[in-house]
Structures are given as structure tokens and as C-alpha cells.
Write a structure and sequence with these properties.
Blueprint lengths: L1 H20 L6 H33 L3 H16 L4 H17 L6 H19 L2
Helix pairs in contact: 1-2, 1-4, 1-5, 2-3, 2-4, 3-4
């Protein structure tokens, strides 16, 4: 589950950055900054909050549909920290996480995604 959450953090940060960097016209620097700032928050706070949300929802309900609704509300509750930005990030995290749950996401894919993010960051910082 942890590898899926890490992959979710990477992909949901990408979605979040695309949403907010296209408002008012797309600029590369805004996109990069939003992506890496959001990724730092999501990979730390967001992954822990998501694991906790899923655990609480499993404790409160045994039915799949009710468990998903409870988990969604807890994702939103933990995501309201910085108002609109973090709420949109939490909702995109929840959606991407549920989509990745249907796909086998192994450790190799997780490591490749993390290394790619770090390499792109190093390249962008040195330009």
C-alpha cells in the first residue's frame, strides 16, 4: 500500500500542478514550483494522512461503498489545512489513489518514478 501511496503522491502532484498552473496561462516555472512544493507536502503529510484516512474508514465500516465515502471525507478533512490548495490536492490524491488501486504498482515502478522526479528536479535547478 505504501508504494501505491508514493506513486499517488507523484501523479496527484502532477495533476494538481496542471490544474493551478494553467489558470491565467501556462508558465513552466510556475508549474515546476507548484509541482515540487506540492510533492514535498503530499509525500510527507499527504501519504500519512491518506494511510490514516483509509485505516479509520476500515475501522468504521465493513461495506466497500460506505468505506470509500468515509475515506473521502477524511481525506478532505485532513486536506483542508491550507484551504483551497490543499483541499484540491487532497481530492486529486484520493481520485488518483483509487485509480491506482486498480493497477499493479510495484516497487520497481515506484523507484523509477521517484528517481525520475529527482533527476528532473536536478536538471531544472541547474539550468
Amino acid at each position: 500500500m505504501l508504494r501505491r501511496k508514493i506513486g499517488t503522491a507523484i501523479f496527484s502532484s502532477l495533476l494538481f500542478s496542471l490544474i493551478f498552473s494553467t489558470i491565467g496561462g501556462f508558465e513552466g516555472d510556475v508549474f515546476y514550483n507548484l509541482y515540487y512544493i506540492n510533492l514535498l507536502f503530499v509525500i510527507t503529510y499527504g501519504v500519512i494522512a491518506s494511510l490514516l484516512s483509509d485505516w479509520i474508514s476500515r475501522q468504521l465500516s465493513t461495506k466497500g461503498y460506505a468505506r470509500e465515502i468515509i475515506s473521502f471525507f477524511f481525506h478532505c478533512f485532513f486536506g483542508i489545512v491550507f484551504l483551497v490548495f490543499s483541499l484540491v490536492s487532497a481530492i486529486s490524491f484520493f481520485i488518483v489513489d483509487r485509480l491506482l488501486a486498480k493497477v499493479k504498482f510495484g516497487w520497481l515502478a515506484c523507484i523509477i518514478a521517484l528517481v525520475s522526479v529527482v533527476l528532473v528536479f536536478i536538471i531544472l535547478i541547474n539550468r
